[in-house]
Amino acid sequence: MKFSLGGSLKLAFRPWVEGIENVPAEGPAILASNHLSFSDSFFLPAVLDRKVTFIAKSEYFTSPGVKGKLTAAFFKGVGQLPVDRSGARGAGEAAIKSGIEVLRRGELFGIYPEGTRSPDGRLYRGKPGGLARVALATGAPVIPVAMIDTEKVQPPGKVVPKMIRPGIRIGKPLDFTRYQGMEGDRFILRSVTDQVMYEIMKLSGQEYVDIYATAAKRQIADAAKAAEAKKKAEAEQAKKAAAE
């Protein structure tokens, strides 16, 4: 299914790729990418000859009914790995464990250091827990990846994609084996993550924002609520003024 979907995506959207030679033909490696769209996890594997395993929430694999079964089959076919987020520490520990297992099998593991999709196309601070801990626990090289214009193909909330040609830039592998055994040091984790994010920024050309994307989403949601409340208050005032 991966090759069928990949061929269809390449034929329909004709994604351009730079630096594909930086992905090793064999052996473990971590593909650390910016995250602009739901479709990122499909376009990147589509342009590679090797399977890439990403983490996906377990709900995609357990939904009931025919639609649920089709969704589960689709995500399994494109190399998505279910992670149960119900534990005390959420998906974090499960994702780290799953990533280590994938790499120890000599495969490619895909991860989004921002932790969630960018709410506005900018690049946000990487979360140090997942990417850095997996890299230091396995010694696998980290390959920075920049997805280009995928948010224009399928903007958040849109089901039908637009026929826009996206791009993918793949950087040179980063070696962090000098820090192996130090995954308990939060300063090392932060340093490793920041170095990867800097390389992604150079590849993508995105504006960098030194806060987490989750915090930015909360700020945007709060601003939208405040604007809506202000609009309602002004409407009420106008209504009262008209009545007088």
From TrEMBL:
The keyword Protease does not apply. CDD domains: LPLAT_AGPAT-like. It holds the Pfam family Acyltransferase. Keywords: Acyltransferase, Coiled coil, Transferase. Residues 29-150 form the Phospholipid/glycerol acyltransferase domain. Residues 216-244 form a coiled coil. One of its GO terms (molecular function) is acyltransferase activity. This is 1-acyl-sn-glycerol-3-phosphate acyltransferase.
